[in-house]
Amino acid sequence: MRILGVDPGLRRTGFGVIEVRGSKLTYVASGTIVVPTDVTLPLRLKVILDNLREVVEQHQPDVSAMEIVFMNTNPASTLLLGQARGAALCALADRGLAVHEYTALQIKKSVVGAGRAAKEQVQMMVQRLLNLDGIPAPDSADALACAICHAHISPISEKIAELNYAARSSRGRTKVRAGRMLG
């Protein structure tokens, strides 16, 4: 499975692609889309949209992962980040990719083992987990961390879904009436 992680931002949008075979994670590519700040907001969002479309075309991921945005102390910043995130979501949806969303806490816990880890810790663990020669840039590291998080969590989520399906299926074959099971 090939996973594209995206760390959206209105100034810098990170992306990272990994491949998963069993429990082995392999680095494929990463980078940062630098968005010009001297153009209008719609043009900035188009830069994110177009560049992520290109990343998807070039690396052909099977799924994507992105951090869920929460309201921070500055509502205007949160709104702008949400718009950058929307452009990224549109690029991924336009290319037919499923998008899996994770909280910052889930991502850090999955990669570092601690939900309150510092950015530097995330960068170092991404380097170690993917056996990289150097520490990745912050935006790329965050995107790779999203992809790693999905690689770690998706098998568990799939197993839970299978168990829930099996439980629902077995209930469907058995009728319960007045507290008694009927075959």
UniProtKB/TrEMBL annotation:
This is Crossover junction endodeoxyribonuclease RuvC. The active site is at D7, E67, D139. InterPro entries: RNaseH-like_sf, RNaseH_sf, X-over_junc_endoDNase_Mg_BS, X-over_junc_endoDNase_RuvC. Keywords: Cytoplasm, DNA damage, DNA recombination, DNA repair, DNA-binding, Endonuclease, Hydrolase, Magnesium, Metal-binding, Nuclease. It comes from the Bacteria. It is found in: Cytoplasm. Mg(2+) 2 binds at E67. Belongs to the RuvC family. The RuvA-RuvB-RuvC complex processes Holliday junction (HJ) DNA during genetic recombination and DNA repair. Endonuclease that resolves HJ intermediates. Cleaves cruciform DNA by making single-stranded nicks across the HJ at symmetrical positions within the homologous arms, yielding a 5'-phosphate and a 3'-hydroxyl group; requires a central core of homology in the junction. The consensus cleavage sequence is 5'-(A/T)TT(C/G)-3'. Cleavage occurs on the 3'-side of the TT dinucleotide at the point of strand exchange. Mg(2+) 1 binds at D7, D139. One of its GO terms (cellular component) is Holliday junction resolvase complex. Its EC number is 3.1.21.10. Binds 2 Mg(2+) ion per subunit. Pfam families: RuvC. GO terms for biological process: DNA recombination; DNA repair. Homodimer which binds Holliday junction (HJ) DNA. The HJ becomes 2-fold symmetrical on binding to RuvC with unstacked arms; it has a different conformation from HJ DNA in complex with RuvA. In the full resolvosome a probable DNA-RuvA(4)-RuvB(12)-RuvC(2) complex forms which resolves the HJ. Its cofactor is Mg(2+). It catalyses: Endonucleolytic cleavage at a junction such as a reciprocal single-stranded crossover between two homologous DNA duplexes (Holliday junction). GO terms for molecular function: crossover junction DNA endonuclease activity; DNA binding; magnesium ion binding.
